[in-house]
Design brief:
311 residues, alpha/beta, Peroxisomal Thiolase, Chain A, domain 1, four-stranded mixed sheet, 10 helices, binds oxa(dethia)-CoA
């Protein structure tokens, strides 16, 4: 058996904040935001809607898709940098809300690469035979740590959650290879201070355009495959120019890359699972497809996975 994804789900809050809305808050323009980042709008959680609420909605949808009941879960992993509280973890809140009484639960802090770290952690437990069903979620309410006076960052982020159920799948499906990495010396480029996101955009950009393509190619090679074999690329939705760097390195056409940054902005750990869930449901990813997931984020961290879609 291998470890793969048997169900996906996602949730974004109702309220939409457009670039034109932002023009009224800070000195920016729709033109600047669109051309520099690809973002047109983002979803913002309600005041009484926190990370665990969004994670719950995504979880319910993924469990339904997997045709699995919460009581069958062995482990819940929530990748987030915006938990409701430092503790209890979002994963524990979720364990209670779902009634996943058998499941162990913990949060993972690896910023925008968090969902990659979560999936790889789940794989270890399933491959070793210790657990069967692991719920991995990326969920963020970035709006609560956004500095709404800083135009360098406030135009970039959005809220939402994405989830996947990982379980044993047939031998020729599932996760084929992965890479996780970190460079703590770059921590000063993207961090939280006084409850707000601080970022050196150019430095993060340089790191990302180098790391994302490199990791994407690496996992394909590690799986013993060629770039031409890739059917679909899901890069972390942070900046369309960074996403394009990864796409160009793999040499794949535009329609083979997930693109939801225009609607959701950068939702950190939630961005890859939201894109995955949406694109699976839209029929863009099908049984037997070679899918590459790749992310990077504060820490600095990065991660990539090559996956043969299907159960
Ligand atoms: O999940 C990981 C999270 N972070 C990222 O992925 C961020 C990676 N970095 C980026 O995506 C890009 O660096 C940004 C989108 C943040 C910035 O784009 P850039 O092309 O690197 O612009 P820049 O930082 O070089 O700034 C160019 C100019 C500056 O003005 P001056 O100094 O040249 O006069 C900025 O002040 O654009 C200005 N600027 C803005 N102008 C209008 C910065 N933000 C804005 C804004 N509206 N929102």
């Amino acid at each position: 058996m291998a470890t793969g994804i048997i169900g996906v789900g996602h949730y974004v809050p109702k309220r939409i904040l457009t670039n034109f809305d932002l023009e009224k808050i800070v000195d920016t323009s729709d033109e600047w935001i669109r051309t520099r980042t690809g973002i047109e709008e983002r979803h913002i959680a309600a005041d009484d809607e926190d990370t665990s609420d969004m994670a719950y909605q995504a979880a319910i949808s993924a469990l339904e898709d997997a045709e699995l009941s919460a009581s069958e879960l062995d482990l819940i992993l929530v990748a987030t940098i915006t938990p409701d509280h430092p503790f209890p973890s979002v994963a524990c809140q979720l364990q209670a809300k779902l009634g996943a009484t058998k499941a162990a639960a913990m949060d993972i802090s690896a910023a925008c690469a968090g969902f990659m770290y979560g999936m790889v952690t789940a794989k270890q437990f399933i491959d070793s035979g210790v657990y069967r069903h692991v719920l991995v979620i990326g969920a963020e309410k970035l709006s609560k740590i956004t500095d709404w006076e800083d135009r360098n960052t406030c135009v970039l982020f959005g809220d939402g959650a994405g989830a996947a159920v990982l379980s044993p799948v047939q031998e020729d499906r599932g996760i084929l290879s992965f890479e996780l990495g970190a460079d703590g010396t770059g921590g000063h480029a993207l961090y939280q201070e006084d409850d707000k996101i601080r970022m050196n955009g150019r430095e993060v950009f340089k790191f990302a355009v180098r790391q994302m393509p490199e990791s994407a190619v690496h996992v394909v090679e590690q799986a013993g495959l060629d770039k031409e074999d890739v059917n679909y690329l899901i890069p972390h939705q942070a900046n369309v120019r960074i996403m394009e760097a990864a796409r160009n390195r793999l040499g794949i056409s535009e329609e083979k890359m997930a693109y939801s940054i225009n609607k959701y902005g950068n939702t950190s750990a939630a961005s890859i699972p939201i894109a995955l869930s949406e694109d699976v449901k839209q029929g863009k990813i099908n049984d037997g497809d070679l899918v590459v997931l790749v992310g990077f984020g504060g820490g600095l961290t990065w991660g990539a996975i090559a996956l043969r879609w299907g159960k």
